[in-house]
Write a structure and sequence with these properties.
Structural class: mainly alpha
InterPro entries: DUF7470 (IPR055893)
Largest sheet: none
Number of helices: 2
Helix content: over 70%
Transmembrane segments: 5-23, 29-49
Distance between the termini: 20 Å
Order of helices and strands: HH
Keywords: Membrane, Transmembrane, Transmembrane helix
Radius of gyration: 15 Å
Shape: flat
Strand content: under 5%
Number of strands: 0
C-alpha cells in the first residue's frame, strides 16, 4: 500500500479516518452518513481513474 499511496497518501487516509471517528463519537448517525459519502466518492474516483487509464491505453 505504501508503494501506491506514498507516505502523504497514508497520512491523508489516517487524518480522514480520525476526522470521521471524531464526528461519529459526537453523532453516530451523521458519522455513518459521512462514511457512506466517502465510500461513494472513492468509487467515483476509482471509476474515473480506470476510464482515464483505458483512454490512454494503460489498462
Amino acid at each position: 500500500m505504501r508503494d501506491t499511496l506514498g507516505s502523504e497518501g497514508i497520512a491523508g487516509v489516517v487524518v480522514v479516518l480520525i476526522a470521521v471517528g471524531v464526528l461519529t463519537v459526537h453523532d453516530p448517525i451523521v458519522g455513518a452518513g459521512v462514511m457512506i459519502l466517502l465510500a461513494g466518492l472513492a468509487l467515483i474516483a476509482k471509476g474515473i481513474a480506470d476510464s482515464t487509464m483505458r483512454a490512454f491505453g494503460l489498462k
